[in-house]
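[SOLVED] Need 3D model of a three-part complex

Original post:
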Amino acid sequence: MISPVLFWTVAILTVVASLALLFARKPVHVAVAVITAMVGLAAAYVGLEAPFLGIVQIVVYTGAVMMLFVFVLMLVGVDQRESLKETIAGQKWMAFALAIGLGALLVSVISRLKVSVAGNPASGEPEAIAHQLFGPYVLVVETLGFLLVTAAVGALVLTHVPRLFPKRTQKEVQAARIQAGANPVNKTFPGVYARHNALDAAALDPDGEPIEESVQRVLKIRQQTVDTIQFRDETRHRRRELGAKEEDQ
Amino acid sequence: MSPINFVYLAAVLFAIGAATVLVRRNAIIAFMGVELMLNAANLALVSFSRIQGNVHGQIMAFFVMVVAAAEVVVGLAIIIAVFRARQTISLDDPAELKG
Amino acid sequence: MLSVSWLLIAIPLASFFVLMVAGRRADAWGHWVGVAASTASAVVGIGAFFALVGRDASERFEAVHLFTWINGGDLKVDAGLLLDPLSITFVLLITIVGTLIHIYSVAYMAHDARRRIFFAYLNLFIAAMLLLVTADSFLLLFVGWEGVGVASYLLIGFWNHRPAYATAANKAFVANRVGDVGLIVAMGLMFAQFGSVGFAEVLGGASGASTAMLTAIGLMLLLAATGKSAQFPLQSWLGDAMAGPTPVSALIHAATMVTAGVYLVVRAGAIYEGAPNARLVVAIVGAITLLLGALIGTAKDDIKKALAASTMSQIGYMMLAAGLGPIGYAFAIFHLVTHGFFKAGMFLGAGSVMHGMDDQVDMRRFGALRSAMVITWVTFGLGWLAILGVPPFSGFWSKDKIIEAAFVGDGWQPWVFGLSALIGAGVTAFYMSRLFFMTFHGKARWTDDQHPHESPLLMTVPMMVLAVGSAFLGLFLAVGNRFQNWLAPVVGEHEHAEPVLSVPVLTTATLVLVVLGVGLAYLMYLRRSVPIEPPPPSLAVLVARNDFFQDSVNRAAFQTPGTHVTRTLVYADAAIVDGAVNKQATAIASFGQASRTLQSGKVRSYALIMLAGVVVLGAILVMGS
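Solution:
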């Protein structure tokens, strides 16, 4: 039998997480909610004497499927804020009404069941599952293999974009760059100093002035750069200490 | 507590998943609703397997998981293809079937 | 000769087709073909007559079977001819008078470009009329009946470039049509009762049918007769029918077509024998019409319209006689024959006057024509004396006998019918004399450009032949009751009954009234000069001149309500019948339009519908279990 604590924990967890599906604004929040629900369900499976399935749930669903979802979310726009305002007239309340109706229907059907719970359930260990899978259900497993291969190939085919123009060679890219007026040589790397070689220090040109374009723009915007002058001055100071002549500085 | 309660829970989750598909405009979130429905079905299957005392329900739930995974792959590929063409994943935008 | 009597009909019919198809190149000789066809029919008719005369009285009928016409289940009608004394009498009248009028028309229509077509129509008429009188079943009679209606329509509207004439042709056809309904219903009743529409079955079996059925058939046949013979209440078309050329008026609307109704009533005598009430109605209709026609005739200034009113009145006499039963049948036909001669003669005379006076018809513009058109004057005068009923001319022998027969019977009938006939005779004398004096006597009231002259020989010779008939035919047929004996096999032995007033009294009274009528006309129209402009009419004259407002009555009683009914039906058809269909279509279309909103193209709407369907189905399944 099931522990009530387990049941109620799982129930509240999954239902609340599912409600986030309905009402959350950002898609990433929704994805996280779904992951939570899946984990809750995995716990339920374990409680229902199906440990193998519980682990598979975590591995496949939360590990693979939801990650796929998150990747695609990132591709299509992770920071969209969805408006919850409904565009089709009557859709929202009709949908809720129908969903409640569906739920009521299912509940009414379930309530009519007379079930006698088996006292000694079969084991849900991987061994037992494996005996069943590769025993009576082996053909289904093979078919599922086909299915998975088909799915993978299908995904490739669907996302394949035929090349409409010849691929631009590196020579063409360079030529285009020069024509656009870009600098033919590489950008200067950030400065490497004795006491600092992070990316946030600008390089020094032969005149001793910092080269602004050697530091990433983002760091400048975030004001996370380091003042390079101190490194220049400190270098000169150290060199003087070490007895270098003025004209070599 | 009888495992039948989990079946009730599965019914509730199924209804919530159905509502999600109908209410949300974002294609990916709607797809997640579909996944929720599948999971609810899985939960019901596993509960009944516990009630019956054999593993058949669990086997079926396993199969459902595999199929759901394959479906997710293809579905997301479609969403990406559509996004590439239209730059939007709203379910309201493609209305060429309008009569 | 009797076995080829179908040639009577075939020859004029063939001539009709030839003349219609031949085209312009036949214009030079087409009319002679028409005359020849009519003459050929006359020859065949005379031959058939002599063939019948040669037989014994009881054997004087010949049934000529032509072909099987209708063989449909219960209704079997063979096309055949019945030649007996009644039909042969009509055949002779039609062909002889018809041929004379054909010859007359050659000269009368000499200046008309469509003369050939005129003769084609005349031949069509002859063929149809002969079919009518020789048919051996009511259905074949009906074919001839309709045929003469068509010919009458074509001929009245011959000059249809004048809208008024075309309208007159329509009016005649429509009035005839109303009567035709009676004949069709009567045929239906006959078929229901006797299982056949042939004369032999219907007339032979009439004694076995119920009075109610026979009365119904009789009344329906009377309706048909009133339409064709211009009797009350379907008499309004005859005056307007004078729009046709004068030979048409002479042939169709004096001698032959308008007498077809009388033929029908006499032929169906066996039916009226068993339906005394219907017979009474026939007599009443006849009496009303004879007075109506006479009164109308007193006020008309158009010579042809006055003669048309006279025709209406004289046919009223014939109907009255036919409605008196066996005592009157023979006299009805007798009067019909004599009337055919003298009325046709007078119409041809009127045509001759019009020909000489440049198609003038207003009698107030005539006067003193007897010196300018002597032959016309003489022939017309003989017809005038005949219609007056002056002995020894034709009219005396036939009309007086009708007046005598009208005074036979018990109760109110002899007095009402007899007095109407008697008074009618007096009024007839008055208005016919008025017509004669205004036209031929008195001072000349011609317009300045008129030079009346006598008509050519082709016109005057037929008039002369008809005048001889007007003068002597009556005497010839009355000698030894020759005509009654001739008709006896068909109409039954003539019963002689005593009138309520003795015969000499009646004869004297008639003659006195005739003299009074002539005298009054003499005083008013010969002694006094006739004003050229009609004087302001008194009420009586006004009513008579307007045909007793028959057109207004028809319009108010039938046309206006009928138009309302038609408009209502048309509206109902458009609104309800069409509307139902159209609204169905519109409803389907709007349903489709409404259904379009379901196809929004939005995935979520479709998903909603799917979920709704699932929930509903699930609910049904759950409830059901």
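Edit: The mean pLDDT of chain B is 92.
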